Amino acid sequence: MTSEFHIYNTLSRKKEIFEPLNPPFVGLYACGPTVYGDAHLGHARQAITFDVLFRTLMHLEYKVRYVRNITDVGHLVDDADDGEDKILKKARLESLEPMEVVQYYMNRYHENMASLNVLPPSIEPRASGHIIEQQELIAKIIEAGYAYEVNGSVYFDVARYNKDHSYGILSGRKVEDLISNTRSLDGQSEKRDPLDFSLWKKADPSHIMRWSSQWGEGYPGWHLECSAMSTKYLGMQFDIHGGGLDLLFPHHECEIAQNVAGYGKPSVKYWMHNNMITINGKKMGRSLGNFITLDQFFSGEHEMLEGRYSAMTIRFFILQAHYRSTLDFSNEALRASQKGLEKLLKAMALLDTIKPLENSSISVKSLHNKCEEALRDDMNTPILIAHLFDGVKIIRALSEAKESITASDLDLLKSLYRTMVYDVLGISPSNAPEAENNLTGDLVEMILQLRKDAKANKDYNTADQIRNRLTQLGLNLKDHKEGTDWEIN
After folding, report:
1. More confidently predicted of 432 and 405
2. Is the pTM of this model over 0.85?
3. Domains by residue range for the chain, with CATH
């Protein structure tokens, strides 16, 4: 088994052996939410992807400083330089202070993340709390000749930057192609070029969120925020920066340009991006109006949902696809994830019933190595889960005394499942069953006890009737020496 961790670098477009800049310390930065609405499944996938990365790095015994930002200013409606600030727009609609909107949705986001068992980051900076750092970076970019000020706003000069460096290095896009696909300026814009993006925007009289600067009162551009906050907490060069694939261009592309222009060098060694959640082949997102919030998944109150789903069902569903592949939502897939998770956790519970013997007929080390290899291969969680289900067959065989295991191997098997399922995949057993599944489980166990009592009283006709009726209802029963296992078909 290799001890190396292979990571897919979006910048190089290939898997690379992970080599931290300052081992054993690892600097990890992930773009957090713009807090103006409830979190949806797409937010969950990004958060869970980088949560598993955080957990994996710690499992590999790295010391990790994980920074996940909160965007609370500067993210405009069209994700570029036009329209109203998203948070300000929400504040106007609801007659609230902008920071009331931020605090309300940030609290809800944290509640959702806790339900999903997403670990809190080491640091969670807000854009509005780092205005000075952003202004300092703007000044450096202007001094280097890659930005210009017009009427109190400052714009990044993409054409000027591209002469000396390469704008598009992350996304693979060429400036020439971008220009041909961009509408020309209509004479009303302050920009020299339509590709230029704002570093600082002048605030109009009605704009509530505004700060003083040497260019006048205004607010920072969205792309600038992550450049300033990531380097403040992780240094001028750090290991990993990531987010959803939709952030690759222009957001992360602009970050690279800002860092090179202001600091003289790229700041990030490895770029990571998780792919999208889709519904009927289309990206799920708030801007498209086809999203389902996490609270709606938990309550089942959405027209596209056939029932409610536990937070761990959602987490397990997301982990059953590789983070770089698309993941299509369906009730069928969620139900399958729910059944699979129940099966996995039931098998783990069986581990405490297994009695060790003098010899092992199975190779726990082989299973352990396969799981580690899958994890170290760019966090291949679906392959890791497949190996864990191969182990479920072994656990069942052990519980039925069809295989044997020594005490030391049994301890290793228990440790493997606790580590991979709880610590790395982040499955929380206490949150896994849904409320109705708790009730279902208790009812089934009560009925099975009635069947057991009937058999003890030699009332085999009643025992058979109970079994047949449970089978008709979709339960698969398996009798063994210690009792009866059951699962929903």
Report:
1. 405
2. yes
3. 11-274 (3.40.50.620), 279-424 (1.10.730), 435-488 (no CATH)
